[in-house]
Structures are given as structure tokens and as C-alpha cells.
Design brief:
Oligomer: heterodimer
Radius of gyration of chain B: 14 Å
Number of helices of chain B: 6
Largest interface: A-B, 30 and 36 residues
CATH superfamily of the largest domain in chain A: Vaccinia Virus protein VP39
Shape of chain A: globular
Strand order of the largest sheet of chain A: 5-2-1-6-7-9-8
Order of helices and strands of chain B: EHEHEEEEHEHEHEH
Largest sheet of chain B: 7 strands, parallel
Distance between the termini of chain B: 13 Å
Helix content of chain A: 40-55%
CATH architecture of the largest domain in chain A: 3-Layer(aba) Sandwich
Number of domains of chain A: 2
Strand content of chain B: 15-25%
Helix content of chain B: 25-40%
CATH topology of the largest domain in chain A: Rossmann fold
Radius of gyration of chain A: 20 Å
Number of strands of chain B: 9
Structural class of chain B: alpha/beta
Largest sheet of chain A: 7 strands, mixed
Number of helices of chain A: 11
Order of helices and strands of chain A: HHHHHEHEHHHEEEEHEHEE
Number of strands of chain A: 9
Chain lengths: 280, 188
């Protein structure tokens, strides 16, 4: 069945067994992910691969590192459109990027990336600016993700989902400016001459980067439970320079502790600015 | 019928009128949360909550991620997000692929609500032009929840009720007015 809803219904204990085995084999701890999300992605993976019991899944990932890799990749699915929340991209182009005009270096960060949509959406917006001074850091969850982000393939469905967004951008672009077809797949038509630094980094485990002017962390926290959400947001806020910008997903919220550190800039958009001093 | 504590309603073309009629007659003292998942355009983000609030005495909102489900509140699935219900009775949003060409998908909300809220859940399927919601309603029934489908003859578009009836064999098949009466007469 080609849908993320599966007829498989793992019990709590079965799901725990699977996640514990994945952690042993790969060091990825999904136990702090949103329960309904990780359960659904696991059941979907099982359904796609004709695996009908947790025991069978555990046996097969133990005997195939490729299948284990696919499991992890399946959890960090690719998102489905460029320029999602198009009004936000227009705001970044009109209100945020001009603030950097006087800086000699601008550091941008896409942490915990599994797909290429946000990066390439940003690169198109950036086309109207002097790109030489921009240093863009993209950290992928695994090597496979980094490789996919460097050389992304999009499907016809991606193109269709992105088409209306493109038409609503303030920057004059059309679908053919963004995508070109190559053997039935679609590539992005981006011509970017600035610095792009790709690396693998799970920021829950490793020292992460800092001093950024703008950080994109849209729709990532929705996959975590409350504990991991707070932890990830703390990391991300710490990576911002004072006065720097943070982009979250439209329906993602921040808690009171974080509210002391960042200021919400625009009603209806999840764009925040790190405060230059902390309220006590 | 078990003690119902949560209500989830799915619908698409032709369902908006039924939903606004229901919301307009709900008394201020209505104790249960109602979660609405209606197909909507992803680019139109404003106006939907306001339109549903206009004649409703209970608060209407689009939930944020990880928000706890509260009694006596109307929730509407936000545009371009799937709305899921977690086992700790919180909302969990997702930007995963569309299901039945839809995000929010009725199937996904109903299915996760059924598996999390089990026998405390009433699932209702209204008028609509595709089959989204049929599998989700079945998951509600399989998990011990109570299911109602709008009578296809009463629905403005009967594809969705027909599919839900075929998939689920619901406890009740009712007209829109009977569904409204059933819900407002639920007792805590």
C-alpha cells in the first residue's frame, strides 16, 4: 500500500524492541521522537518492505546493514515542496537579507538536514544578493543524507507541489527556472557561486557550530517529543549570534525559557530574532 | 456504547455547512473537545478559524504542535499539515507526504486518534468527494471507538460516506441533522 498509513499496528512493547535494536545497531536513538510519528514511520517502512512482525524487522536489520540504512533514511523522509510557506521566503528576501548588506561575512546554518528543499529554496532567494560573502553550513543527519542534499533528485510530485509556491514568490521565477528534467527525474537549476559547507553531524551527540546570522530549523521539532524538542531548540538558539535570525515551522511553538532568549518578529510567521541582552 | 470523551469529524466537499450548523447549536456548556479535519486549500491560511468561530460559543483554534487536547474546545486541522493525536493526548503535526492527495489527511487524523483515544473516541465522517477517511474510520472502530457516517443520500457529495460505510460498517448511518442531535445530546 503506497501510503504512510499502514494496517500494521505495533504495540508499545514491540515498537520499543525495534527502536532499542536500531539504537544498538546504529547509535540512532529514536525513543525520544514523537510517538505517533516514529510509530507511523516504522509501520510504513515495514509495510513497504513486506515485513509483518517486529521480530522479522529486527532479524532483517540485524542481517542487512543496507536495510538498516533504509530504515533510518525512511524516518528522515524528504519534504515535498520548495518554498513551503512562501510568504516566509518573501519576508526573508525583503526584510532579513537586506540587513546583512553591510556585513563582510554572513554565516547561515541548516542543521539536522535530511532533505534539500529548504537549502535550495534559500539559494534561489539569495540569487539577488552578493553571494560571495555568504558561508552556508549544511549538516546532514547521515552521510547518505548529505550526499542526497548535495545532488538532489526531485519527482514530478515535488515539482507540482512547488509550482504554485514559485508563482507566489516576489522574486520573478517560474518552474523552468527552478527545475530541469533529466531521465524522468528533476534536478534543481541553481547556479550558486558562494561557499557551501556540507558535513555529517548529529547535533544531539557532537559539538555543533556557532555564531550564525541566520538559522533554518523549520518543521524539525515536530518530529521530536517534548524533551528532545527543548534540547534541540536550546542547541539551535545557542548557535545564533546576538541579533541573529531563527526560522521555525509555522505551527511550532517555543517555551517560556526560550522566549527570554529570542523575540517573535512577525505575527503569522515563525521568524525569531535572538535578543541582544537577556531579561532576568 | 462506551463513555465518549473525544469527537473527531472528517469531511470535504459539502461538509462545511454541516460543521457550521453543528458549531452554531453547541451550547457553551458542551464538555467535549471536537477535532475537525476538513480538506482545505494550503495557501488560504486566514479566515477559516474566523468563519467557524462566527456562530460558535466554544473557542475554535488551529492547534500547535505538542498542544494538549483540552475539553470544551474546537480544534481545526491547520492547512498544509497532517494533524495526528499522540498517546499522551497531545497533537502531533507532520509535513509528511500527502495522503489521498490531501494534507491534512482525514485518514491520518482518524487513524492516530483511534489508536490513541480508543473506546473514548467518536469518529464521524461527513460529505466529501474522495475516499480519504475510510481507512481512518475503520481504525477507530477496530480500536474500540464509536463510528458514525453521514447518510450518502443526505450528503452533498456521497463518495466519502460511501467509502467509509464500505470500509467500516459503522455503528450508525445518520442524516446531518441526526448527527448534530446525536452530538449535542452526548452526556459526560
Amino acid at each position: 500500500m503506497n501510503t504512510i498509513i499502514s494496517n500494521i499496528n505495533l504495540s508499545e512493547v514491540e515498537l520499543k524492541h525495534v527502536l532499542s535494536e536500531v539504537k544498538c545497531l546504529s547509535n540512532f536513538d529514536f525513543s525520544l521522537y514523537s510517538h505517533s510519528f516514529i510509530k507511523r514511520r516504522t509501520e510504513y517502512f515495514m509495510s513497504k518492505n513486506n515485513i509483518f512482525s517486529e521480530g522479522d524487522l529486527i532479524y532483517r536489520i540485524n542481517n542487512s546493514s543496507a536495510l538498516l540504512g533504509h530504515f533510518i533514511e525512511n524516518v528522515f523522509f524528504q519534504q515535498f515542496e520548495l518554498f513551503r510557506d512562501v510568504e516566509l521566503w518573501n519576508y526573508i528576501e525583503e526584510k532579513v537579507l537586506p540587513k546583512f548588506l553591510k556585513q563582510t561575512e554572513v554565516k547561515i546554518y541548516f542543521p539536522y538536514s535530511s532533505g534539500a528543499e529548504q537549502l535550495y529554496s534559500f539559494l534561489y532567494i539569495l540569487n539577488n544578493f552578493n553571494t560571495e560573502k555568504f558561508k552556508i553550513y549544511i549538516t546532514g543527519v547521515t552521510d547518505r543524507h548529505v550526499s542526497k542534499i548535495k545532488n538532489p533528485n526531485f519527482t514530478k510530485a515535488h515539482v507540482k507541489a512547488s509550482e504554485k509556491n514559485i508563482s507566489l514568490l516576489k522574486t520573478a521565477l517560474d518552474k523552468d527556472d527552478v527545475f530541469f528534467e533529466n531521465n524522468g527525474e528533476f534536478k534543481v537549476n541553481v547556479n550558486y557561486s558562494g561557499n557551501l559547507i556540507f558535513t555529517t553531524c548529529d547535533f544531539f551527540k557532537e559539538q555543533h557550530f556557532a555564531d550564525f546570522d541566520l538559522v533554518f530549523f523549520q518543521n524539525k521539532m515536530i518530529f521530536f517529543n517534548t524533551e528532545l524538542k527543548a534540547k534541540s531548540l536550546n542547541y539551535v538558539v545557542r548557535s545564533l549570534k546576538k541579533g541573529a535570525y531563527l526560522i521555525l515551522g509555522e505551527r511550532e511553538t517555543i517555551d517560556k525559557t526560550i522566549e527570554k532568549k529570542i523575540k517573535h518578529l512577525h505575527k503569522g510567521m515563525s521568524i525569531y530574532k535572538r535578543k541582544t541582552f537577556l531579561l532576568t | 456504547m462506551n463513555k465518549i470523551k473525544y469527537i473527531v469529524i472528517g469531511g470535504s466537499a459539502g461538509s462545511f455547512k454541516v460543521v457550521t450548523e453543528l458549531l452554531s447549536v453547541l451550547p457553551k456548556s458542551f464538555p467535549f473537545p471536537i477535532i475537525l479535519v476538513l480538506h482545505r486549500l494550503k495557501y488560504i491560511k486566514n479566515g477559516f478559524v474566523e468563519a467557524l468561530s462566527a456562530k460558535c460559543e466554544l473557542p475554535v483554534c488551529e492547534p500547535s504542535d505538542k498542544e494538549q487536547i483540552k475539553d470544551a474546545q474546537i480544534y481545526i486541522a491547520p492547512a498544509n499539515y497532517h494533524l495526528c493525536i499522540d498517546i499522551d493526548k497531545t497533537f502531533s503535526l507532520s509535513v509528511e507526504e500527502q495522503v489521498n492527495h490531501s494534507r491534512p489527511s482525514i485518514d491520518l487524523t482518524l487513524s492516530t486518534a483511534g489508536r490513541s483515544l480508543k473506546s473514548e473516541l467518536l469518529g464521524v465522517m461527513l460529505s466529501g468527494a474522495n475516499k480519504d477517511g475510510a481507512i481512518g474510520l475503520k481504525h477507530i472502530k477496530d480500536a474500540g471507538g464509536y463510528t458514525i457516517v453521514q447518510n450518502p443520500e443526505d450528503a452533498m457529495v456521497k463518495t466519502m460516506p460511501d467509502a467509509a460505510i464500505l470500509e467500516t460498517n459503522p455503528e450508525k448511518i445518520l442524516s446531518s441533522q441526526e448527527i448534530i442531535d446525536f452530538i449535542i445530546n452526548l452526556k459526560p
